[in-house]
């Protein structure tokens, strides 16, 4: 079993709350290489550049500056409305932002989604796998989720491979989004993850990215 992340949520260290009746303190998650932190204004330029790029084509992009600003504001507000959301993914050793991962359930979503995106120049290093595994562990262990889905473009083969590495299986019967064009990949429940090779496989693949001498079967999934 992989010890996916350490969870911290000291409001003095993470003061990003939004005024309103239900202020939410966004926790910070730590893995071996990454820190998943609340979205902040200084992260917006990378977000904007990514969603203006071709890589965002599977996530509703490319977006113009107004659209990317509204989406980023929505990322922050989502925590306030839903009590969960997306984190910015940072490298622990440098603080550099490399992408986003977390939960997503805007109006019209049939189920809670686990989503991710890695900046184009940082892909292929296992960051998406490591961050998404940590986010899922938090939602399951701390927030009591009993499952989740990922809505994926059928042509987004990299994300589909990642979902499969996470133990997801395509659910052809589940309602989708976007005029039912997205494929629904269902994450295993917390109980289904127990005593299986899924988490062990995730840990092995992350270890390979940390120590390339150690090489499990399979290739990069992001």
Poorly predicted regions? 6-21
Q: What is the CATH domain class?
A: Alpha Beta
Q: Shape, please? A: globular
Instruction: Assign the CATH superfamily.
Output: Gcn5-related N-acetyltransferase (GNAT)
CATH topology heading: Aminopeptidase
In CATH, the architecture is 3-Layer(aba) Sandwich
Order of helices and strands: EEEHHEEEHEHEEHH
Description of the structure:
Residues 1-11 have a biased composition (Polar residues). Keywords: Transferase. Pfam families: Acetyltransf_3. The chain is of the alpha+beta class and 222 residues long. It has a single domain (27-210), classed as Gcn5-related N-acetyltransferase (GNAT) (Aminopeptidase, 3-Layer(aba) Sandwich). The protein contains six helices and nine strands. The protein has helices at 44-51, 65-82, 127-141, 157-165, 190-193, 198-210; strands at residues 6-8, 28-30, 34-37, 86-91, 97-104, 113-118, 149-152, 169-170, 183-186. Strands 1-2-3-4-5-6 form a six-stranded antiparallel β-sheet. It has a three-stranded antiparallel β-sheet with strand order 7-9-8, with helices on one face. Strand 2 and strand 3 form a beta hairpin. The longest helix is centred in the first third of the chain and has 18 residues, at 65-82. It is globular and about 45 Å long. The two termini are 22 Å apart. Mean pLDDT is 85; it is low at 6-21.
